[in-house]
Design brief:
By secondary structure, the protein is α/β, with parallel strands linked by helices. It has helices at about 5-15, 30-40, 50-65, 75-90, 115-120, 135-150, 160-165, 190-200, 225-230, 255-260, 315-325, 330-355, 360-370, 385-395, 415-425, 435-440, 445-450, 465-475; strands at about 5, 20-25, 45, 70, 95-100, 125-130, 155-160, 170, 205-210, 235, 265-270, 290-295, 310, 380, 400-405, 430-435, 455-460.
Length: about 500
Amino acid sequence: MAMVHGGRLVAQALKRHGTTHLFTLCGGHIQAIYDGCIDEGIRVVDTRHEQTAGHAADGWARVTGIPGVCAVTAGPGVTDVVTAVANAQRAQVPLVCIGGAGPRALTDMGSLQDMDCVSLMRSITKWSVQVPETRRISEYIDAAFRVSQANVPGPVFLEMPLDLLMNFGDDADASPTRPLETPPRPAADPRAIESAVALLKKAERPCILVGSQSRWSPARERIAAALEKLGAPAFLNGMARGGLPHDHPLLFSRSRRFALAQADLVLVLGTPFDFRVDYGRAPTWSADAKIVQIDLDGSELGRNRGVDVAVHADSGIALEQIVSAFGKGSFGAWVDAVRAEETKRRAKMAAEIESDASPPNPLRVCAELSKRLGKDDVVIGDGGDFVATAAYVLKMQWPQLWMDPGPLGTLGVGPGYAMAAKLARPNAKVVLVYGDGSFGLNAMEFEAMARQKIPVVAVIGNDAGWTQIRRGQVELYGESRAVATDLEYTR
């Protein structure tokens, strides 16, 4: 075998795990990794801010199912990526963030960009650690990929000091560990399945809420068939969007509040009782409804809302277990009632969707955009009001074709997600739906995309303000006391 520097060992290990792109903003502490990527055929994609590099790694994982990888330099390079890593943690997305550091011999001597980044990153990652020596680089990268995908997915931070990357090691020391093609996911306890099925057999008005954990389920491609067999109204949020075709007779969106308030049983699959579902509480939810909650994170079971059956398992696998034991459902009258409510609510939007007013109504803009999307095209939402409108109107045919930040509500995710989506799916159109406020956070990334020939289309809701926030200010304090929420029109 050959003696190679630590940066090459990094690239070799990443390549073994299927990494084809490394997202980064250049830094002296990590340049050996770039050199290694050249030799291993990994494309280095550079950004104008580390936040975007982190979001691109997040986006790569969402689109491909493989943990995305970003590399940032020491000190402020790491602090700049914190928001992106925190967003991935809250959204339960697997990524590997490599951070540079000064030479270990100069620790605590005031070397350039020296700080304790491992401690900084610990609260927003599944694992934050400094790699101890060059010959163990491959071992730690193997572990990072394994940890990021195990149980509840999430980000991992590996700090790699400069001397570790510059030192030479024998590539024979590379770990022989074979990457896990499909990370193991737990099935449900049969007793919990029996309890869930017993409730389902008694239910007359069940509905199903499917969340982002379905993205990582080994059964994800069979979830649609399971939902169809169960025959109850289904509502999809987060990364589950597109899990049923937009015109499927069991898929609903605008009638969710009605259904949750009327349901006598709700199956909650891989999504927490957080603000997006009013914490599972009345009056949005029926106080008398039976709840079956399935989650990879045992600590989420029963949080904010007591549940009747708590299932610590992969949501897709557990759903299949339930359907296998229950059989085919028949809830036609209830489905018709939910459809009637859905139709009524959509009819209220019809006038605005068809309006020829100038400037155009956001609903009309998004409806026109939806008509122009192919079945494999990717849409990214980055903003407030305008993006919420897009989420109402755009019709997704398949999972992973809609991306938004998730429950942390981070602005500025768009360019990173767009870079990743276009690089992962070069034949698809990638459309970035922006608010004009959010556009300003990482607008210079359009230079990075143009320079690196990563073509995306951006549609900006240009209303010269942080309108979602301004509306609340005006309601609370009056028009004359709205501050810090006005912008110039974006041109």
